[in-house]
Design goal:
22% strand, 27% helix, single chain, alpha/beta, seven-stranded mixed β-sheet
Length: 189
């Protein structure tokens, strides 16, 4: 089976697993998940750093409270901005309360005229991850392309623990993460 088909099958499997997991969280579990910066991330979120996050879609792990905590520590926030499947993703400055517009693929993103920034830390959504900190994304390659040119940015996947795969197939263009934060652990190299 071609690797692209294997990845598509894994996306279906892990989306269903994630959806089921989130549907069965108690309100208390949901409320405390990703509600504060874990110590390793808090140490990175120093005043003046630019932290890029995302607006969660469906059952994705939601980094909203992490972004709020980073802003409270003096960080500048950013969100991704996408115009098409093949166009490069940019990161635009954003703060809580700023209006968002609808983007492709169901994304909520800053208005196109928001200032473009280069993030120091990128909180990355994902469908699955493995112990080598490789990620399986949605399949368009936006984050892999963005991370490949960001150089010194720290990539931190934000995921539910059930999204951990034993071993994910990867292509030469797939970018590993520096760490993954789940509702129950911090996993790093």
């Amino acid at each position: 089976m071609p690797q692209s088909d294997v990845k598509s099958d894994l996306r279906r499997k892990f989306r269903a697993t994630r959806d089921n997991f989130v549907a069965n969280l108690t309100s208390g579990e949901a409320a405390i998940s990703f509600s504060c910066l874990p110590s390793p991330l808090a140490q990175l979120c120093t005043p003046g750093k630019i932290v890029a996050g995302y607006v969660a879609i469906g059952s994705e792990a939601d980094p909203a409270k992490l972004l709020t905590a980073a802003a409270e520590q003096g960080c500048t926030l950013a969100l991704p901005y996408v115009t098409s499947k093949t166009s490069p993703m940019r990161f635009l400055q954003w703060q809580a309360g700023d209006p968002l517009e609808n983007g492709p693929f169901g994304l909520s993103q800053p208005k196109a005229d928001a200032p473009e920034v280069t993030p120091d830390i990128v909180l990355v959504p994902l469908v699955a991850f493995d112990t080598q900190l490789m990620r399986l994304g949605q399949g368009a390659g936006h984050y892999d392309r963005a991370l490949s040119v960001l150089g010194n940015s720290i990539a931190i996947g934000v995921a539910w623990s059930v999204q951990l795969a034993e071993n994910l197939p990867s292509d030469p263009w797939d970018m590993p993460m520096d760490a993954v934060l789940t509702e129950s652990s911090w996993i790093s190299r």
